[in-house]
Amino acid sequence: MRRPRRPIPVAAAVIAALVIPPSLAAQAADDGVLIIQRDGHEIGREQFSIRRGRPGDPQGSTLEATSQYPWGSPTVRLRGSLERTAAGEMAGFRLEVEAAAGVSRVRAQGSRTRVAVQVAGPGTVTAREYPGGSNVVILHDSLVSLYAAAAELATPAGRQLTAVFPHAERRVAFTARREPPTEVEGEPLAAVRLAGGIEGTIWLDARGRLTRIELPGSGLRAIRLRD
Q: What's the rounded Cα separation, in Å, for the pair 49 and 179?
């Protein structure tokens, strides 16, 4: 992929407003397939959808994703769902991971003050709480479409966010900064730069859809399969 070279002078402000309007962040709709690569080699694929509404909140959003590693003959399968409020706050999260060691499940509930997490694996159950708030996102290393939440919460000045990785029981602070759209291979794309505890770039098209996620620290790259 070639590096962005020049901004789009006239349409930039308009497209930027269409890509991630803060008041409508939780309403963006998308569905597609991501090819997951590590160090340039495909290791799996992820199918995801983001739809408007969630139980009890028609203005919120629901993300559902399924990933397989490797694709077609998986040894690891993940199925997850993320519910967010109209303001972009995490309301609920569910994850099921099937691997050789067995099945593990994660449940998380969010509020303005806390995020309550329960992780159940073969023979074990743990529960933890983390500080909550509008700047908290739920992430997982192998369910990369969850990064869409960080992209929607990003601002041009850079927004301080906290990522909770419930399956790994860790919390990471980082900044998400949205840049004006640039022309990449003839297509206007907006970059969301992640810095701090998470380093990387999320690329969105003019409709606000995920097109690419790059996490150089782990050698991970997710590329949208063209429709």
A: 24
